[in-house]
Specification:
The chain is mainly beta. The protein has two helices and 23 strands. The chain has two domains: about 210 residues, no CATH class; about 130 residues, S-adenosyl-L-methionine-dependent methyltransferases. The strands form six sheets. It has a six-stranded antiparallel beta sheet with strand order 6-5-8-3-20-21, with no helix packed on it. A five-stranded antiparallel beta sheet has the order 10-19-18-13-16, with no helix packed on it. A four-stranded antiparallel beta sheet has the order 1-23-4-7.
């Protein structure tokens, strides 16, 4: 366990004892979310789409629970914009198991993360209560702000890292949204936008392609996205650093366009059709799994999108620096919506509450 992670998790343990001393039958993970609101929200399986999500929890979050039984699981809604959420049912399957992989090195293969002794603790239908904005600025761990899953079988926790494996599907055609409170770590890289775009889809610096700094963490899946011409071929080029000077691409029939990165590798995709009739642009993305290698901390690289539609258009460059640590959240998330690629995150997860006896 590295030093930044150790310090962060030590603080989490101290907070855990503080929270459980007043509410002995519930354990919040991370413990700080017992009385604080997260910085964002995350979907969980069944809320709008079917899919699967595994949470690998460092055993430090469950310190003191060895030999006790976990009897239920809850998610808390995100405060968000205070809008009304919920009001429907979802079908869930929940399994618990010892973790077969290190929390900071999860596999994209769900089965590879599950150790021996998998227990299916719930299978059935769960109600998602409708809730508006709470009276205070912090959403309480209480009805109607939580999704509560009472286990049909208790799970005897023996200590160590734990996997919470959730599969979910909406009942009928959902016409609601419900977003879980998000726990995040402090780990993130940096992204500097440089150069310029050309063509109708790159009018403003930094608005039409990018990557979230929180994804620039070793072991994370980095998602590079763009908005562009529907149906166009999109190529992402990645190099070791920005070019010292831009190369004018007028000679290629692209006046005003520039090459800002010398690609050492490329990835190709196609821009989607507009997601709504009111939009004139489509979306494309490339997901690159980043190795969970400490040598990547503070590493630098550069990226640029190229769009081949009716004509060649280029986008601004992205000067990226990896995070200097994994941030110490002590939770990793492996998630997949049906029909989509698996996503891995080391620095964000839904906050949880376990019922304990």
């Amino acid at each position: 366990m590295n030093a930044p992670r150790s310090l962060a998790l030590s603080f989490a343990v101290a907070s855990l004892f503080a929270s459980t001393s007043t509410q002995a039958q519930d354990v919040i993970v991370p413990a700080t979310h017992a009385s604080t609101e997260g910085s964002g929200g995350l979907m969980i399986p069944g809320l709008g789409t079917d899919g699967r999500q595994q949470l690998l929890l460092d055993g430090v979050h469950l310190t003191g629970l060895q030999g006790r039984a976990l009897r239920g699981l809850s998610f808390r809604r995100d405060l968000g914009d205070g809008s009304v959420m919920g009001g429907a049912d979802i079908d869930l399957v929940v399994r618990l198991a010892p973790a077969a992989r290190a929390v900071d090195a999860p596999a994209t293969d769900f089965s590879a993360n599950l150790g021996a002794g998998v227990v299916e603790v719930f299978r059935g239908r769960v109600h998602v209560p409708q809730s508006g904005s709470p009276a205070t600025g912090i959403v309480p761990w209480a009805a109607p702000y939580t999704i509560d899953v009472p286990f049909q079988v208790d799970y005897a926790y023996a200590g160590g890292d734990l996997v919470v494996d959730v599969e979910g599907a909406p009942v009928g055609v959902p016409d609601f949204h419900w977003v879980a409170d998000q726990a995040t770590s402090i780990a993130e890289g940096t992204v500097r936008v440089f150069g310029h775009g050309c063509g109708p889809h790159s009018p403003v610096l930094g608005t039409n392609s990018g990557i979230a700094p929180r994804e620039l963490v070793p072991g994370q899946v980095a998602t590079f996205g763009l908005f562009g011409e529907p149906g166009a071929l999109a190529i992402l080029g990645i190099g070791l650093a920005p070019r010292s000077s831009a190369l004018d691409l007028t000679i290629l029939g692209a006046p005003g366009c520039g090459l800002f990165v010398d690609p050492a590798m490329t990835a190709t995709t196609v821009v989607s059709q507009p997601v709504h009739a009111a939009f004139a642009v489509g979306h494309a993305e490339v997901r690159i799994p980043l190795p969970g290698d400490n040598a990547l901390y503070n590493a630098r690289f550069a990226a640029q999108w190229f769009e081949f539609g009716a004509t060649l258009h280029t986008y601004h460059g992205l000067d990226c620096t990896m995070a200097g640590s994994n941030g110490g959240l002590g939770i990793s998330t492996v998630a997949q919506e049906t029909g989509h690629a698996v996503r891995v995150s080391l620095n964000s997860a839904p906050a949880l509450r376990f019922g304990v006896r």
